[in-house]
Specification:
The structure is a single chain. By secondary structure, the chain is α+β, with helices and mostly antiparallel strands. It has 2 domains: 4-112, Phosphorylase Kinase, domain 1 (2-Layer Sandwich), CATH 3.30.200; 115-205, no CATH class. The chain contains 5 helices and 12 strands. It has helices at residues 4-10, 55-72, 118-128, 141-151, 159-171, and strands at residues 19-26, 29-34, 37-48, 80-92, 100-111, 114-115, 129-130, 135-136, 174-176, 184-186, 192-194, 200-202. It is globular. The model has no long low-confidence stretch (mean pLDDT 90).
């Protein structure tokens, strides 16, 4: 989703950072490096209203998650430094029921991570998710360790770091709703961490 043009049109003075390279985009925003801080990135995000009354419900849930991540810094997630609400806006949409679609713009900054390798991606795909069928895999720690022993015969990865990440995920009070290899990155200490915090819920609010 190309959110930057919307920010430049509706709220150009509300982003107090100089953006550099676009690092990627997804369904709910774009991520950029920062010119003056090579250790951080910024996520420009958007929440659309598809049904009346749901817009702030979705945003407020995300706000609670981001505040929690800033306050507690769980090891399984990228370090979030700050986040800001940029405003409620609307745009003309000819197919929309009222002619205008409402949306919220926001941003958050977090530590800059690097992509995992192809082998690491295969490992996480095997133990955490099945993207084609949308099946969440909830293997026990012992089962994951057993699987890693087999995967280690053909793939290059740090099994202990993978185990640590899985343990950190289990201990975190945040539930990631879209956990797959594209949302896992690695920091300078070779620790795996989740990104895309827009797709999370607090554990006590998650309906299983």
């Amino acid at each position: 989703m190309l959110v930057l043009p919307l920010c430049q049109h509706f709220c150009p003075d509300k982003i107090p950072f100089q953006l550099a390279e676009c690092l990627g985009d997804g369904a709910d925003g774009q991520c950029f490096s920062l010119q003056n801080d090579p250790k951080k990135v910024i996520k420009l995000g958007i929440v659309y209203e598809y049904h009346s009354g749901e817009l702030f419900k979705i945003y407020n849930q995300m706000d609670r998650v981001l505040n929690y991540l800033i306050r507690t810094q769980p090891a399984a997630y990228a370090h979030v430094y700050e986040h800001e609400y940029l405003g409620l806006y609307s745009r003309e949409m000819p197919y929309w029921h009222s002619g205008k679609q409402k949306f919220i713009l926001y941003y958050y900054t977090m530590e800059k991570l690097r992509k995992i390798s192809e082998d690491e991606s295969k490992v996480f795909h095997s133990i955490l998710s099945h993207e084609d069928r949308g099946i969440a895999k909830n293997f026990s720690i012992d089962k994951i360790r057993e699987m890693l022993e087999g995967l280690g015969r053909g793939l290059d990865f740090d099994a202990e770091k993978v185990m640590l990440f899985c343990e950190n995920i289990n201990e975190a009070s945040v539930y990631h709703l879209d956990l797959h290899p594209r949302n896992i990155m690695i920091d300078d200490s070779s620790n795996y961490k989740c990104i895309d915090m827009d797709r999370c819920e607090l554990e006590n609010e998650h309906v299983k």
